[in-house]
Amino acid sequence: MSLLEEISASLQKGDDNEVAELTKRAIAESIDPKEILDDGLVGGMDIIGKKFRNHEIFLPDVLLAARAMYAGMDLLKPLFLKDGMPHIGKIVIGTVQGDLHDIGKNLVGIMLRGAGFEIIDLGKDVPPEDFVDTAEREGADVIGMSTLLTTTTPMMTRVIEILKERGLEEKISTIVGGAPVSVELAQEIGASSYGYDAANAVEKVRELTA
Amino acid sequence: MNGLLEFELKDIMPSREDVLLNQGMPVGVEVPEKIESLLGEAMRRFEESVAPVGVIRELTAEEFDPIFEGEGENSDDALLAGIYPNADNLALFAVTMGREVSREIEELFNTNDFASGSMLDATASIAADKASEVMDALFLEDLSTRALATPGHFVFGYSPGYCGWHITAQRKLFDFLDPGTINITLNQSCLMTPLKSISGLLVSGMGDIHLFEPVFGYCRSCMSHTCQERFRKISSPKPSTA
After folding, report:
1. For chain B, which residues make up each domain, given as ranges?
2. CB–CB of B189 and A60 under 8 A?
3. Is A185 at the interface with chain B, CB within 8 A?
4. For B225, nearest residue in chain A (alpha carbons)
5. B161: chain A residues, CB-CB within 8 Å
6. A209: contact with B, CB 8 A cutoff
7. Does the interface predicted TM-score (ipTM) exceed 0.90?
8. Nearest of A179, A45, A154 to residue A103 by alpha carbon
């Protein structure tokens, strides 16, 4: 097993200490940091995502793997200081204004990061303007919005309206998700896409950024 | 029944199985050692940091009318509109698990320890729900003592933000109940701090007032199915409190 495969395997076991040790070794052996990231950490997280989607593993397994992924990423970050961490797209995510439930949103963020996206997580109870302001300022590709409450879905509509008002709807896509959200609602409010769970959200964001 | 209520840890402590189920792990599934360890750690942290307390204040349907109306944002078919006018007794309530446990959850997420954060979050969420159920039971017990409830009466809680009752109703609910006495505050979006807090209306009445056809627009996308559990309790032959 190569060192990068070992990193991937340790990440899948959720062993953050081992991932950190192996990442240090890979850096010391002058392996290209992007290779460590893509083939070790993101590669491992990709397998975790597939297993989760296929119900072979459970949420805590994914979260342990995510902790291990961050243990490795923290060591790689300084090596990407000049250009920042490489990514395949920039996504702004948050739980909409009026809602503090963020477990689902956090999981989506973890899975997207694990898939190689850069995530700007605005947290919870995020006003519509903040989503758009941040996405515009950061040059994001997609805005991801989550909610658990039935009464806060109009906030998602408002974000889409603001994008249109500013003529950004072609440039910045939107994806919505959360318990009261459905594909029908997503279409009704004019969202670009709908993710029914975290793994599905990753697939949909890949489609939006392809 | 009015005033502050303290909860005993044993009454609100979630079971191991409930927490795992919340994390998507069905009963009977083999739990890896690492996850078992996460669970044990979350329960230990919870026991050390939780400070469960509640507040309750009875009110009449007339007093509740403007609170329910809130800021006029409710759905036309808000569930509670058809329930509370038929109630025998009503009370506003709020319960919280305290600031420390919410602070710990946030800190775990902020330091990327999602696995521990999620497990502690699940533990605290279930405990808050259990505290709310204890509140239901205490209110029913108190009403029974005062001969205001008979076997066949049920008390259930309904919260702003759910089933068409708009979250902005929290403002008037807080004005009347004043949960600041137990350190729960409301932010500009009408959300509570600490996070692991529940507020709402306790409705006491015969079982049938709580029954409804879950065919509203918001029912289609609801994933909690709390109403189904309540219907089962009402239809069970043994009288139940919540």
Report:
1. 3-235
2. no
3. yes
4. A179
5. 98, 149-152
6. no
7. no
8. A179
| Residue among B201, B182, B157 nearest B53 (CA) | B182
In chain A, which among 69-98 make CB contacts under 8 A with chain B? 70, 97-98
Q: Is B235 on the interface with A (CB under 8 A)?
A: no
Alpha-carbon distance A89 to A112, whole Å?
A: 10
Spans of all domains in chain A: 3-80, 90-209
Are A90 and A140 contacting, i.e. CB atoms less than 8 angstroms apart?
A: yes
Count CA atoms closer than 13 A to B118's CA, side-chain side.
Answer: 26
Query: Is B3-235 in CATH node 3.40.109.40?
Result: yes
Residues of chain B in contact with residue A106, where contact means CB-CB under 8 angstroms, are 109, 114, 118
The answer to whether A60 faces chain B, any CB pair under 8 Å, is yes
Upper half-sphere CA count for residue B55 (Cβ side, 13 Å): 16
Q: Above pLDDT 70, what percent of chain A?
A: 99
Tokens for A57, please give them.
């593993």
Question: Tell me: domain A90-209, CATH 3.40.50.280, correct?
Answer: yes
Q: Please give the structure tokens belonging to residue B129.
A: 């729900």
Render each residue's pLDDT in chain B as its tens digit; 242 residues. Answer: 899 999 999 999 999 999 999 998 988 888 888 899 999 999 999 999 999 999 999 999 999 999 999 999 998 899 999 999 999 999 999 999 999 999 999 899 888 888 999 999 999 999 999 999 999 999 999 999 999 999 899 999 999 988 889 989 999 999 999 999 999 999 988 889 998 999 999 999 999 999 888 888 778 767 677 888 889 989 875 554 44
B19 touches chain A (CB under 8 A): no
Supply the pLDDT for residue A181. 81
**Do residues A82 and A108 lie in contact, with contact meaning Cβ atoms separated by under 8 Å?**
no
CB within 8 Å: A61 and B38: no
Q: A3-80 in CATH: which number?
A: 1.10.1240.10
Question: What pTM value is reported for the model?
Answer: 0.84
Residues A133-163 have pLDDT tens digits of 999 999 999 999 998 877 788 899 999 999 9
Please report which helix (H) or strand (E) contains residue B54, including its range: strand B53-59
CB spacing of B164 vs A151 below 8 angstroms = yes
Q: Which residues of B touch A179 (CB under 8 A)?
A: 221-224
Structure tokens of B139? 């209110």
Given CB atoms, is B198 within the 8 Å cutoff of chain A? Answer: no
Q: Note the helical H segments in chain B.
A: 9-12, 16-22, 33-49, 61-69, 99-110, 114-145, 170-177, 217-220, 226-235
Q: How far does chain A reach from its first CA to its final CA, in angstroms? A: 32
